[in-house]
Amino acid sequence: MTILADNDLKSKVMEGEKMHFHRYFMVERPEYLGEADDRRLMDAVEVTCLIQQIYKVNEILKSLGERQIVDVEIFHKVVDRMLNPAYRMSEIHIERFYQEMKKLEQLSFLLNDLCEVNFNLTSRIDYTILGLSYEEIKSMDKPPYDQDFNDFYFQVYIAFMNGKMDFSKFFTSVKNFLESVNEITLEYPS
Questions:
Q1: Strand-pair partners of 26
Q2: Distance CA 59, CA 37 (A)
Q3: Tens of pLDDT, residues 79-127
Q4: Rounded to whole angstroms, how far apart are CA atoms 35 and 3?
Q5: What angle (nearest 5°) sits at the alpha carbon of residue 150, between those of residues 147 and 152?
Q6: For residues 7-44, b (16+ Cβ closer than 10 Å) or e, as one string?
Q7: Which among 11, 30, 82, 150 would be 20 to 30 A from 173, CA to CA?
Q8: Closest Cα to residue 100, out of 138, 61, 137, 142?
Q9: Closest Cα partner for 153 from 171, 129, 134?
C-alpha cells in the first residue's frame, strides 16, 4: 500500500495522468502496519513538507541578509517523534519547536498581505510533540473531552503565539489540563 500526502494525487496516479511530484511524497509501507502507523507516516510527511518550506524561507532570509533564520534541526526531531512512538522529546526540544513555530507564525503574518502562506501543522502533531500517544489523542477526541481540550489548547496556543503568554506558562497550562482531565502523566527526558 502507498500513503500519499495529497488525496488528489492518488486518483491522478491511478488514472495514469502525467504530473510533477513537487511537494508530494509517497511512502511505501508493508501491509502489516496498522492505522496508528498510517497516521504516524502521514504526520511525518506533513512535517517533512514543512521542512521543505522552511529551507526555502531560510534561503530567502539569508539572501536578504537576515541573521535570524528558522531552526530546521528541531523539525527533524519532530519527524523522529512522529515515526518512533517510544522517542520522547525533552522539554527543551518542545520549547524550541514552539519558538520556531512562533517565528513561522510571525513570518506568515507579515507575508499574508502578499500571498497566502500556511506553516501550520495539524493539532495531532502538536499533541504528539507534547507527549501524548496516538491512543491518548484518539481518546481525547471523544466525549466528554473532545471539545474541551481542543478549545483550551487553541486558546493557550494563540495566547502564546501572540506573545500574551510565555512558553513556560503555556506548557504548564497544557500539561496541568491534560493531567487533571484525563489523568495523563506526561514525562519528559532531561
A1: 4
A2: 33
A3: 999 988 889 999 999 999 999 999 999 888 877 777 777 788 888 899 8
A4: 12
A5: 100
A6: eebeeeeeeeeeeeeeebbeeeeeeeeeeebebbbbbb
A7: 82
A8: 61
A9: 171
